[in-house]
Amino acid sequence: MRKPLVSVIVATWNGEKFLRPALESLFAQDYSPVEAILVDDGSDDGTPEIASSFRSLRYIRQENRGLAEAHNAGIAAARGDFIAFLDDDDVLPPNKVSVQVNHLVEHPNLGCVMGRQEWINPPPWLTRDAVYGDLDGIPPGSAMIRREVLRQLGGFDSSYRWGEDMDLLVRMRERGVKMEVLPQVVLYRRYTGENMTAPSNRPVKNPLLRSLKGKLDRDRTESST
Predict the structure, then answer these.
(1) Do 81 and 1 form a contact (C-beta atoms < 8 A)?
(2) Phi, psi for residue 80 in degrees, rounded to 5
(3) CA dihedral over 36, 202, 182, 116, signed as positive or negative
(4) What is the DSSP secondary structure assignment for residue 141, as one 8-state letter?
(5) Higher pLDDT, residue 124 or 212
(6) Residue 62: which residues within 8 A CB-CB, separation 6 or more?
């Protein structure tokens, strides 16, 4: 039986400080075949040199357009049946891909699986999730998603500066896409102080509120037609 191809997309902008360990963890996966895609969102640091040191890495460079557009560029280039994402300052455990792809294969009714996270250096302001008890809860970035689901949703909304992954989850639920959270740790997060989700980098308005408002507006439009 053919093992499905999995595409893992790493989007980066001037992320040379932690990019190499992130990519090394991707190439250390115990599953094959994996298509590794790096989308360079206009970096002016050593990112191209780091990328060139990984022979089988697909390297895409574009003008700086933001994280959502970088992810969408990766999705457009991806050939995998399933697509996952990795931030350039995080690290994957070696069984991340195998755990999630095997679950999707065994449960064809699921469109997306997420997993648990552990922090390499957790900041003191993180709170624990009420359901799982994990610091900062279940990260949207832990998701592995069927490519067809991403195609139907049109990928990420590029108007979001951050929170575009949470918006994607809101739209998946709206479309009735079945999702599940696995008990395994599939992501090691790193706090750098420059993370988009750090309090100092967040806009005053939570983008999740915008996502939920968008859903309510669409519901009203559908009910009135």
Answers:
(1) no
(2) -75, 155
(3) positive
(4) G
(5) 124
(6) 39, 40, 41, 42, 69, 70, 73
Of 84, 104, 105, nearest in space to 1 by CA: 105
Segment 161-179, tens digit of pLDDT? 888 999 999 999 999 999 9
Lateral strand order in the sheet of 82-87? 58-62, 34-41, 6-12, 82-87, 144-146, 112-119, 179-189
Instruction: Tell which phi-psi region holds residue 212, choosing left (phi > 0), alpha (psi between -120 and 50) or beta.
Output: alpha
- CA atoms within 13 Å, Cβ hemisphere of 31: 23
Instruction: Give the Cα separation of 30 and 160 in Å (integer).
Output: 34
Mean of all residue pLDDT scores within the chain: 91
Q: Is 50 left (phi over 0), alpha (psi -120 to 50) or beta?
A: alpha
State the sign of the Cα–Cα–Cα–Cα dihedral 39, 41, 25, 157.
Answer: negative
pTM of the model: 0.88
Structural contact between residues 187 and 117, judged by C-beta atoms closer than 8 angstroms: yes
Helix (H) or strand (E) holding 218: helix 207-223
Q: What is the DSSP string of 143-183?
A: -EEEHHHHHHHTS--TT-SS-HHHHHHHHHHHTT--EEEEE
Q: Could you give all domains of the chain from N- to C-terminal order, each with its CATH number?
A: 6-223 (3.90.550.10)
pLDDT at 193 over 90: no
